[in-house]
């Protein structure tokens, strides 16, 4: 028999597990301890304890590059600031990382209390505002919005291929919300379809260029890797037998022993042979 109640913390963990996450990295801190207890008790997800928050952010980044999405937990202020450089790197390189930050009690935030890990000015959003520059979506969970905001932010994380920020107050991870586990639907990760007429026009234009080309090549960049379409890319180049190059951020996306692999293209920093071949192409896909 399904339950009609679920804690905010367990709902977040359930969503992360459904996306394939089985390890959450991070560092304990007084504002995230109740959530860490929930991780320890949650079946199917391990706690990957790190020496410091910067290490945790890089570990989550590496995990996400292999698994598609990663997650870390830090505490408010000092913890999240220690991790921000790694999160900024994930943003720059289009890696889906979920950063969960344990924040002070909701009552303390509302009253503007002077607490440790703060700047002593009653502003509890100052660090979250910093993260707006290096995350694609942010959420400060409340009793009322937690269920919807968790789904919104995680959806953006995967669709946009960028890190996201979730603030989880220390007194909310164990708060029960009305949520029937049997009625929970998977996240809607379908892409918005292109307008039919514009899509067809673009295809016709590309095909027209392909028919006229005599020296056509393919350059694969990081977006193909991050959005998990490399199987389609490989099928395409093997069907067309076109020479293929990768950008430096997509290095490793194509096996360098592949018979059609020609090298890494990085503009003027490429090898002389790669520069000449790319320059001689009359169509680059």
Instruction: Give the SSE string.
Output: EHEHEHEHEHHEHEEHEHHEEHE
Mean pLDDT: 95
Low-confidence stretches: none
Number of domains: 2
Q: Whole-Å distance between the termini?
A: 54 Å
| Separate helix tally | 11
Task: Describe the protein's architecture and organization.
The chain has 285 residues and is α/β, with parallel strands linked by helices. The chain has two domains: 5-183, Thiamin diphosphate (ThDP)-binding fold, Pyr/PP domains (Rossmann fold, 3-Layer(aba) Sandwich); 196-284, Rossmann fold, CATH 3.40.50.1220. 42% of the residues lie in helices and 18% in strands. The chain is built from eleven helices and twelve strands. It has helices at residues 8-18, 33-41, 53-67, 78-92, 106-111, 126-131, 146-160, 196-212, 222-226, 230-240, 272-280; strands spanning 5-7, 23-26, 46-49, 70-75, 97-103, 137-140, 164-169, 176-178, 216-220, 244-246, 261-264, 283-284. The strands form three sheets. Strands 3-2-4-5-7-6 form a six-stranded parallel sheet, sandwiched between helices. Strands 11-10-9-12 form a four-stranded parallel sheet. Helix 2 links the parallel strand 2 and strand 3. Helix 1 runs parallel beside helix 7 (146-160) and helix 3 packs parallel to helix 4 (78-92). The protein starts with a strand and ends with a strand.
């Amino acid at each position: 028999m399904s339950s009609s109640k679920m804690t905010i913390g367990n709902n977040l963990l359930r969503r992360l597990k459904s996306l394939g996450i089985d390890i959450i990295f991070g560092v304990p801190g007084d504002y995230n301890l109740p959530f860490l207890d929930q991780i320890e008790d949650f079946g199917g997800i391990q706690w990957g304890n790190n020496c410091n928050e910067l290490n945790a952010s890089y570990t989550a980044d590496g995990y996400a590059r292999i698994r598609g999405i990663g997650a870390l937990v830090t505490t408010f202020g000092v913890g999240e600031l220690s991790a921000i450089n790694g999160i900024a790197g994930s943003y720059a390189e289009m890696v889906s990382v979920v950063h969960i930050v344990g924040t002070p009690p909701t009552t303390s935030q509302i009253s503007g209390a002077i607490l440790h890990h703060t700047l002593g000015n009653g502003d509890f959003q100052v660090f979250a505002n910093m993260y707006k520059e290096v995350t694609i979506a942010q959420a400060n969970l409340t009793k009322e919005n937690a269920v919807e905001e968790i789904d919104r932010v995680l959806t953006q994380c995967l669709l946009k291929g960028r890190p996201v920020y979730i603030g989880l107050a220390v007194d909310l991870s164990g708060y029960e919300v009305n949520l029937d586990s049997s009625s929970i639907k998977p996240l809607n990760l379908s892409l918005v379809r292109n307008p039919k007429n514009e899509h067809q026009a673009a295809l016709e234009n590309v095909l027209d260029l392909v028919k006229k080309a005599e020296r056509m090549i393919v350059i694969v960049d990081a977006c193909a890797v991050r959005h998990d379409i490399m199987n389609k890319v490989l099928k395409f180049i093997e069907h067309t037998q076109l020479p293929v190059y990768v950008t430096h951020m997509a290095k490793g996306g194509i096996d360098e022993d592949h018979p059609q692999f020609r090298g890494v293209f990085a503009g003027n920093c490429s090898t002389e042979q790669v520069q000449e071949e790319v320059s001689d192409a009359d169509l680059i896909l």
